[in-house]
Amino acid sequence: LEPGSYVYLSIRDTGAGIAPHAVERIFDPFFTTKDVGEGTGMGLAIVHGIVTGYGGTITVESTPGEGSCFTIYLPRMVTAAQEGTLGHASANIPRGHGHILFVDDEAVLVRLGHAMLEHLGYDVTGYTSSLEALRAFRDCPQQFDVVITDQTMPILTGATLVEELRQVRPDIPIILCTGFSHTMNAEKARALGVDAFVMKPGVTEELAVTIQQVLQKRAQQDLW
């Protein structure tokens, strides 16, 4: 961390704890202690990416059989209310407006995405079910300006969701996110008609810039 003033948030549980060898890798992408099919191993990696993107850090202390404590440190925003700034760590992150449909089967990532995007100025509707997200889009397709969806989801994958969304509204800007998938890469995403492809864990600035790029690209296409 750079010298300065910080605020911190500690989250402690009294669960099973984490084995020492696992603590060393807990923030690594794709690392998980869950059984196959029960988790992607991306949750904490994405949290780490978001926190470091704001100039902060996250630590963990854990004792097997007693529980764990995660502590997040973020730069303190001095006079943010008066100056309308996010602080030097995020001053250059582009903000925007519009309604974003955010889809990910992991509830924690939906909550994080919702908070992050609202902080950037967007209205957000989040779903952990791609089927429910599709139903909501079909009910009122014109209320959304951008769709951000995960790729690896049960029942309806991100790729299939993209195809269904395009049938309803061909011009909707779509950003496809994935951490690990044998069936999807940037080239396949482009062939699918996705406007942008983002690898997890992404940071706030990367996603903020990508949203602005797809919105501007779509606006230019509408002029022709």
UniProtKB/TrEMBL annotation:
The keyword Kinase applies. The keyword Chaperone does not apply. It comes from the Bacteria. Residues 99-215 form the Response regulatory domain. The modification 4-aspartylphosphate is found at residue 150. Its EC number is 2.7.13.3. It catalyses: ATP + protein L-histidine = ADP + protein N-phospho-L-histidine. Residues 1-78 form the Histidine kinase domain. This is histidine kinase. One of its GO terms (cellular component) is plasma membrane. It comes from Candidatus Entotheonella gemina. It holds the Pfam family HATPase_c. Keywords: Kinase, Phosphoprotein, Transferase. GO terms for molecular function: histidine phosphotransfer kinase activity; phosphorelay sensor kinase activity.
